Amino acid sequence: MAIKNERIGPVEAVSLAVVFIAAKIYLTFPALMVSLGLSAAWMVVLLAVLISLPAFLPVAVLMDKYPGKSIIEIGEELVGPYLNTVFVLGYLAFLLAVESMVLRQFAERILMVSIPDLPISMAMSGMVLGTVMACFFGLEAIARSTRISSVFIGILLVLVLVATSPYWSLNNLAPIWGPGLAEVMGSGIMKLSLTSEIFLLAIIYPSINSKGTWNMWKLGSHSLIIAGLILVTTVITFMLTFPVMVAREISLPTFEMARLIYFGPFVQRLEPVFIPMWALAALLKLTIGMYAMLSLLTGLLKLPYYRPLILPLAIIIISVAFIPPNVTTAVMIDEGIIRTWGWVPTFGLPVILLAVSIWRRKETDSGGKKTS
Amino acid sequence: MSFELKDTTKQNVNTGKDAGEQRNAPPDRAGDHGVEVPEGQRHPKRSRGRSRGIRKPVPVGSGEGNGKEEKKESPGENEEPVVNPGEQKISGELDRDVDYLKRVFHFPKNKDVVFREFSIGIDNPVRAIVIFIDGMTNKAVQNDSVLQPLMLLSRLRIDTSKGSPQDMVRERLLPGNQVEIFGEMHAVIDGVLNGDTAVLIDGAHRALVVETKGWEHRNVDKPEVEMVVRGPHEAFNETFRVNTALIRKGFHSPDLVTEILKVGNKDRINCGIMYLEGVVNPELVKEAKRRISLLETDYVGTGGILEQFIEDRTYALAPQVLSTERPDRVINHIIEGKVAVLAEGSPHVLVFPMNIFGMLQTAEDAYIRWPYGSLLRMLRLVGVFLATFLPGIYVAVNAYHHEMIPTDLLMAFAGAREQVPFPTIVEVLIMEIAFELIREAGIRIPGVIGPTLGIVGALILGQAAVAAKIVSPILIVIVAVTAIGSFVIPNYTLSLSIRAIRFVYIILGGLWGFFGIILGFFIHLHHLSSLKSFGIPFLSPLGSNSGGGDVIWRKPVWQQEERPGFVAPLRNKKQPPLSRRWIKRDKGDNLNGN
Amino acid sequence: MVRKLLKLQILILALLFIPGCWGYQEVDESAFILALGVDKGRENRLNLTAQIAVPKNIAGGGGEGGGAGGGGAKSTMIVSVEAPTILAGLELLGSFVERHPSLRHTKAIVFSSELAREDMGRYLAPIVRYRQFRRNTFILISRGKARDLVENTQPIMEDNPAKYIELLVGTSKYTGRFPISSQVHSFYNAAKSQAREPVAILAAVGGDRQEDQVGDDKSAGGYLAGEIPREGGNKIDLMGTAVFRGGRMVGELTGDETTVMEMINGKFYEGIFSVPDPRVPGKYILLEVQGERKPTVQISLEGKVPVIDVEVPLDAEFLSIQSNISYEQPGAIGEVEDAFARLLQEDTAVLIRKTQEEFRADIFGFGEEARKKFLTWPQWEQYKWLEVFPLAQVNVEYKINIRRIGLLRESSPVRES
Asked: How many domains, chain B?
């Protein structure tokens, strides 16, 4: 558990979760979706988001049963320290995978488009350095910066999406069902893990100053809906701009969209203006992820504060990030493994915990005493 | 609108450390604990003399017991050991007391202090002595209100049978408008040092201190750095009482409270805290008093140094208290529920808690009509942005992001650069440093032409540099725009910090292009987000609180009903929802209501 | 504690800077290629011609020797290499061009029609992967050698050839005689699509061609690039379209046909047409036509062949009536509208015939409309629209509305003396 004194408001928590989930639009995500769902890619995303809402429900119920506790403490109470360690390691594994793959991809991509000659190690160290220093400032600073930046990022995103409208063609969305209705449904369900970063809320729930009106479900559902909206809108706009065959080839969809903007001889070549948007989103996602991992670690190891862990964790993340030999493998890991199986630790384990909790409660209720 | 003044345990440490550091050399990072503040002395509970407040005199003599006052920094005190005045009481024997005081003031070496002995003119003449510091007292008042009545007119009034001599004297003879009676030596000494006149009477266990302050000071003048077009043109000056009066006359309310504290070890200057009782959060006042009274240092000369002593984080890149020389701004902030600190000898008043937007506002925004204030503020934001990022972006674009510039402009850049021998980052650094030099020099050029000459000189210098093909002409434009952008920042300290940070961004832009600038911005943003100014986040109300309709976009004056939430005032509303009651017309009128 | 670690990190960071910075390239260390020409090579597969900007002449040379032509400093430098691929050619430039070639500001890429007929897609499509290459570069197909075209991009009115190219390509907005969207983006999208075929602008070096048939009343757009009877000015003509099937060029369209194509595509903005006067042969009525709304396309896939109905709404304005007959009257306006529609139908018939029989390419994008009728992608792929299209029955109807009449409200004849 992190520093106990830190408190953030519900709006800030929602913005943290939204940025954490939605930052993937700046990677290859839209193109991968088009590969999967062809002209119905947006439906796949929409489906995944919609399914994640009921998938999140057990998490919300679980957290609300034990207010003020983080998922580690709850797990410990319910299943005992040893099994809980396994659970926490599962969460950690998920987060570590996400962090390092995101780091690797962002470093490779963003520097590929803006500063091609920078060695990859410099790029990654630079990003990690920024992340480390931001983590030092604490959760409140992170939350506040996220809230401020998310407005800025949001505006730029809307600009990019709207400014490509001269190239839009609604016909790109035909045929409607893409590869076929059944396939679309299947892919949508499979891609549930797209939003599994919502698990962040379970980790930082104790630090959220909710004042009663914002319970976990409200926080989570708001975040999921907003993030889902961003994901779906980006994919739709991407598909409107590029026909299916072309879209699935593209490495960096949002970059290419920004590049296309052309309103005459002066208003063109605007993509460096959007680099801040990507870089900020990437850095924020990395920072939030790192903070989440630190929270888990200090909770697991019962440490009073987390700051000494920042540097070692950073080194671990960089090392893992270097494991894939090239960026395609990194994307494959991200897409294939994380996004297919990521729901297991983030949605599955809390279900188990909830089941245990209900079973326990039934037991103690029948025993006449109420232990909580 | 919740507000928590966090227990500033963390900041506490810094305050102690900073005070310790300030003691010796100039602030030296390498030696965090260069000065050994004696353990247990970190936060001694010392009273700093009695307050002169109208309402709340702090009881005198409280908190004694730290006779182990650090007298080690007293070079030249190799005569008699001086007794700690904190404990000395007035004995009643005039000679003994006078001797003691002469020793304390290093009389007769110290020619500033005057001991004027005389006799009170009654039937049994009583010896008395008047002590004051030459130059700090108003001689006319002294002669008229102290010496003359005691020496000449006493015969008419005194009746020693009723009550103690000093009471008699005070009640009947001394027409000064502030006369106080004290029994301890340190009060007498403090009074004399403040410019009052102390009267010791033979046989009396108490001394009288008459208010006779009057020293040469500047008149109330126009503001030096905060000019407005429409609005009052008065500024604070160096005299404490003049400043408090300027604030008081702008806001007539008995709830406006001034508490006076004394700061410092050897130089115990007056320091006044003003706030609006009933509106301000009492935690805030408590914290302010706590920080000021727990300072241990020799010299807290002016407001600037005081600011550095009480701010939350010294190493932060932005100031955390507002320092202004306009009474109207201070009044506005006090009404909103903030606290103002006036220091003797400083024409700048500190206001806190402050957020970054407060630093970007000027008094004028309030005095001009509705949209213009907001537009001017946005303009200032653009100026801040330009001043910080423009040179960095120029370097980044020239070095890495050629595709960003339209082709025409690119050709112009490239053509201009053909003849310049330096890479972009070097020429930017050269020009920026040269410009800073000129600016600094411009402050010292005498007369009115100083700043103007600075800017013009800079541009001419730039022109010459272009002709000599040292820099490209586009760069001159960039540097000039950057400088102008930094001039629109109303707060001097903030503009200094922006000027410093600009160089970091230039280097980051040169190394890593846009990405470097964003990285720097990311860290900078987090740093600012974590700053707190007296318990409120520095970036309020961007975080979660309400700003009261006056942050960037100003609502019309009659719509600003709430005080900013982040100050956590006790009373939120300062205007009812309908403040322009003239809008409602009676039923008989059928003109268009306006 | 926080500060100490911060200091440590800054130290580490500073150490990492010791090797220097990477990729720092000043603007005056790059050779900006403004136009790239690709030809078939003699010794190697491709002949690349690059027009490299000379910034100091563009920037500073405005005052001196601009119009003198001969003695003045040239604003660009033309170089050519032979190489197996485009990017290899760029690298080869490094041997004799002292600056690092950069495609970041390439405004136009020109392929010779010879090369285009072979297989342009092979060279163009993969280059999209290259970071410096932008998808809104214009594609021009040169009827002669691309090299000639690039060499002759010497603007007279502008300092900057890039601006010249952009402006020149932009004139299609108000003439409509060559395709409007001929950027790599649209070409590439169409080349990979199964619903339409790509087109590109046709260009050639012209200006001193002698017109073979003298005195023939040819409409102003009835030429291909390079055949326009003109003299003086810039050397390059843009007129007409190059039609592709996939990545291979299969034919050319004249300016008029291009205009009609754009109308059907819905990309026609405005243009001036000379309509033969219905009552007085030999005289013309000039109309300024604007494509206000998009055409509606209806496709029916029911029968053996698809039936495509297109309705193109156009707004027009009288510019001049040579015969001075009062066509502004409501009754007479209809005559002009019909005459104009007939004129357009002639060109349309030629166009449809060409695209269906000669080229067998659906350059109108009807396929995208047709695709809406399918529910799943595999179904669409099976239908193979591009093969079916040549058999389709295409009916185009023009709805012309002459709305405004200019400054004269009625015409009266000029006295014949």
From this structure: 3
B265 phi, psi to nearest 5 deg? -85, -70
Q: In this structure, is residue B100 part of a structural domain?
A: yes
Q: What angle separates helix B185-194 from helix B94-104, to the nearest 10 degrees?
A: 60
Do B171 and B319 lie in a common domain? no
In the chain, the amino acid numbered B132 is F
What's the Rg (C-alpha) of chain B?
30
User: What is the span of the domain harbouring residue B464?
Assistant: 370-537
Taking only the tens place, the pLDDT of each residue in C330-380 is 888 888 888 888 888 888 888 888 888 888 888 888 888 888 888 778 888
B226 and B344 fall within a common domain: yes
Domain, as residue range, for C263? 257-410
Contact map slice: C 22-41 vs B, CB within 8 A: 23-28, 30, 32, 34
Number of compact structural domains in chain C: 2
pLDDT tens-digit readout, A215-230? 788 888 888 999 999 9
Q: How many CB pairs under 8 A join A and C?
A: 91
Cα B212 to Cα A167, B107, B197, C187, distances in angstroms: 82, 21, 6, 92
User: Under CATH, to which class is A10-350 assigned?
Assistant: mainly alpha
Question: Which of B312, B317, B356, B525 has the most A C-beta neighbours within 10 Å, making it the best mutation to test the interface with A?
Answer: B525
C-alpha A85: how far from chain center: 23
Q: Tell me which residues of chain B have a pLDDT lower than 70.
A: 1-88, 121-124, 153-174, 176, 264-268, 301, 450-451, 454-455, 542-554, 557, 560-562, 565-568, 586-594
The whole-angstrom distance between C123's CA and the closest CA on chain B is 23
B361 assigned to some structural domain: no
Kindly state whether residue C157 falls inside one of the protein's structural domains.
yes
* B384 & B518 share domain: yes
Q: Taking CB atoms and an 8 Å limit, are A177 and C376 in contact across chains?
A: yes
What ipTM did this prediction achieve? 0.88
Burial C297-325 (b: 16+ CB within 10 A, else e): bebeeeeeebebebebbbbbbbeebebeb
Is B482 in the same domain as B514? yes
Residue pLDDT, tens place only, A31-60: 888 888 888 888 888 888 888 888 888 888
The CATH number assigned to the domain holding C292 equals 3.30.300.210
Indicate whether C282 and C178 sit together in one domain: no
The reply to whether B155 and B263 lie within a common domain is no
Name the pTM for this structure: 0.80
Does the pLDDT value for residue C316 go beyond 80? yes
- Residues B161, B230 within the same domain: no
Supply the DSSP string of A309-331, one letter for each residue.
GHHHHHHHHHHHHT-SSSHHHHH
Cβ(B226)–Cβ(B347) under 8 Å? Answer: no
Domain residue ranges of chain A, discontinuous segments joined by +: 10-350
pLDDT for C61: 46
Residue C328 lies in a domain: yes
Shared-domain flag, residues B204 and B228: no
- With an 8 Å Cβ cutoff, are B544 and A11 in contact? yes
- H or E element that contains A128: helix A120-136
In a mutational test of the A interface, the residue from B11, B529, B540, B566 whose CB has the highest number of chain A CBs within 10 Å is B529
Q: Within a domain: residue C8?
A: no
Give C273-293 pLDDT, tens digit per residue. 888 888 888 888 888 888 878
pLDDT tens digits, one per residue of B179-214: 777 777 888 888 888 888 888 887 777 788 888 887
Is B288 among the domain residues?
A: yes
Alpha-carbon gap: C96 to the closest alpha carbon of chain B (Å): 19
In a domain, C321, yes or no: yes
Residues 6+ apart with CB under 8 A from B297: B19, B22, B23, B264, B265, B309
Q: B94 Cβ partners below 8 Å, 6+ apart?
A: B127, B128, B129, B200, B201, B202, B203
| pLDDT averaged over every residue in chain A | 82
